[in-house]
Specification:
By secondary structure, the chain is mainly α. The protein has one domain (4-19, 32-107). The chain has helices spanning 4-20, 33-48, 55-75, 86-107. The radius of gyration is 14 Å and the shape is elongated.
């Protein structure tokens, strides 16, 4: 599965682009913003966790993705129609936490 890390990076880049485009460029028919943050970072976490070789490494990976999400929120201040949002960061963290819990549950089966 040599292509798998590239898929994770592509997902991360798609999430980055989606978070850093001006709001006016996004379709009006998108679901709730917090749901998109939750689902996007949850999906990224679920895709990235198989790259970790242990639970400790998985926890560090999720922490790194949370720091990345904080960085994206900080960068949003530079984008027209966007601002830093603690609620977006909380939705990102909740998505990553759910990804971790799903991975723990799957590993215990």
């Amino acid at each position: 599965m040599w292509w798998y890390p590239g898929m994770v990076i592509a997902c991360g880049l798609a999430l980055l682009v989606g978070c850093l485009v001006p709001n006016r460029w996004l379709p009006a028919s998108l679901p709730n913003d917090k749901f998109l943050h939750f689902a996007g970072f949850g999906t990224l976490g679920l895709l990235a966790l198989p790259l970790a070789s242990s639970r400790v490494e998985g926890a560090w990976l999720l922490a790194a993705l949370l720091v990345l999400s904080w960085g994206i929120e900080c960068l949003q201040q530079l984008v027209p129609d966007r601002d830093f949002s603690w609620r977006d960061l909380a939705a990102n963290a909740a998505g990553l936490a759910c990804a971790g819990l799903i991975a723990l549950g799957y590993a215990s089966i």
